[in-house]
Amino acid sequence: MRSNTRRNRAIAVVGGLSLALTLAACTAPPDDEDEPTAGGDDGGSEVAEGCEAFADYGDLSGTTVTVYTSITSPEDQPHIDSYKPFEECTGATIEYEGSREFEAQLPVRIQAGDPPDIAYIPQPGLLATIVRDNPDAVVPVGEMAEANVDEYYDPAWKGYGSIDGTYYATPLGANVKSFVWYSPSMFADAGYEIPETWDELIALSDQIVADGGKPWCAGIESGEATGWPATDWLEDVMLRTAGPDVYDQWVSHEIPFNDPAVADALETVGSILKNPDYVNAGIGDVRSIASTPFTDAGFPILDGQCWMHRQASFYAANWESAREGVTVAEDGDVFAFYFPSMDPDTRPVLGGGEFVAAFSDRPEVAAFQAYLVSPEWNNAKIEATGPGWVSANSGQDTSLYASPIDKLSAELLADPNTVFRFDASDLMPGEVGAASFWTEMTNWIASDKSNQEVLDAIEASWP
């Protein structure tokens, strides 16, 4: 949608209101008045009050768009509710279907000639597989949706939705992995300040040791996916020590997995995770990291045994389930700070997210895909969801977030100085990202396998 000045004014009308007020503003008038339409195609129609930001989508009355995702009840309801402004203002109907068999069934439906209009793709790797296995099935992103992405998202998101030079999928939700969890009250009582650079982070860790504590607690056990939290550590540090360009080369295998740049990053990770003076506070020694469930690894902070735990924004749910009454807030029991960069002038952020692909080029489908990358949808989704969902859209109203960590995540993602990169293991071939990378990082901790042996083994597994 190119009319950005008008749309930005509309955000103040639609984005700042509650979802209920948005729906009320978009509801049709009484029967004795002329019925306004959402579209501007006929030149003589009026736009319903509160629906100004939807005008470019046109009058879509009588049309239906089907949406297929892996998100099932009860998590599906916030998505369904977030579509209501679009339905009310355009006249279109959105039919939602969630399935626990999504990843298996979507290719089957595509090959059978019965794909959904829209699908939520959880990983860029799956998107690439679908596009390459079914070269004519996925419809390239339309002009309205692409314009929204260009305006409201870090350019990296567009790259992750592109396959072989064609733009196929727009961003949906997001998460931030570059966080360190801590206890605000413990820091205050000890006189510790939140570190803003890597050197300050290491200096703080050394100070905690000098004061008789152990600064870090960690855990990488996750059933069949054991090891992934350790890959996140390497990815986050690689983004800081080597920079985003070399990170991209590593992900795409333009440099080998055992390149010196990767070795340097792993050495830096080891200076924390394999340092017996630093870990594993409240749990055990270095090797205990391999057997400690990632879900529980930060809990020693609640007992004053651990000072810092590096984990993603979604870890907030684990705190709240750990102990009744735990508050996640800047002045609460636990909160998080940004995992510092090596260079104070740069702000690399590691994260993940989902993507939206279309399988039909009908106008209503293109309009709905554009809506899903608009501030209007993001604001509606924030209000419908409550805590636990975050967007990278820079036009969203971050004041709508009920959760402080969600708000912090969204502000970080929307910051124009942030350099976002997707989780590397989600982008690498399955033989690496969901296999050897996990396994070898576990061996690195559990068996004290050497840095070089670990990197060589992962490189040898690359297809």
UniProtKB/TrEMBL annotation:
InterPro entries: Bact_solute-bd_prot1 (IPR050490), SBP (IPR006059). Keywords: Signal, Transport. SUPFAM superfamilies: Periplasmic binding protein-like II (SSF53850). It comes from the Bacteria. The keyword Signal applies. Belongs to the bacterial solute-binding protein 1 family. This is Alpha-glucoside ABC transporter substrate-binding protein. It comes from Actinotalea fermentans. The gene is aglE.
